[in-house]
Amino acid sequence: VASLARSRRHTIQLATYLGMAIALAVLKLIPPLLKLRGNLVLDEPRTYTLAIPLVLIFFAVFGLRAAFQIPTELDANWVFRLAQPTVRDAVRASRWLILILGVLPISLVWLPVTLTMWPTHAAIGSTLFDVTIGLLLTELALSNWTKIPFASAHEPATETLKSKAAWYVTALLMYQFIVPEIQIRALRSWRTPLMQVAILTIIVVALRVWRSHTLRRRTPTFDVATSDTTTLNLSEALS
Fold it and tell me: What would the 3-class secondary structure string for 27-56 be?
């Protein structure tokens, strides 16, 4: 928390993700307002209102994950090099930070807002769904995580961004359109949201068990992996 608050670089990055989240959340509310004889319905769950916390959680998870990759002071990571934590410790710390700073605050704010407008079962069911799907998104975001938050070197890779851009866009579209449709159909009764929460919880537990087994022998990553050979090219005759 101190690293995020004191570092201007981290603050700007989080503000960028927050700005994108707010922009997309507002865009979800514009189509109902532009419809002929239409109005913005807030007294009952609709897909455009259910998508708001989902979009905010999506950008909070990946925004915090991106901030963790940027070191606060790279020369100070000798402490972690001297007494290296395990990768499971790094994943556990990153998970707790994302939940405490991203998923839970959004869900806790969303709950009283919906309780004042929606039926009680719809508000509670929506909040529980947001928390569990935020847990699932956190596990997926940390699937290949091997870095110590704020203490590992980071070099933005253009090719990596290009290869993963399609996955990010697909996941965001699902959070904006498909997941709200599934959620609004489930909110018609008490049982269906509880079943969805139970299924998502089982998936989260399964992912944690699988990751705990696969990351058992891996070591934390402190430096940027470079595979290219660097040459000085001091003389044109040698090139």
Answer: HHHHHHHHCCCCCCCCCCCCHHHHHHHHHH
pTM of the prediction?
0.84
DSSP string, 142-161: TTT--BPTTTS-----HHHH
Q: Specify the 3-state DSSP secondary structure of 43.
A: coil
* The pLDDT of residue 230: 46
Separation CA 209–CA 78 (nearest Å): 30
Euclidean distance between the first and final Cα of the chain, in Å? 50
**Under DSSP, is residue 120 helix (H, G, I), strand (E, B) or coil?**
helix
Handedness of CA 47, 53, 56, 60 (dihedral sign): negative
How many residues in total does the chain contain? 239
Q: What is the tens place of the pLDDT at every residue in 139-153?
A: 999 988 888 888 877
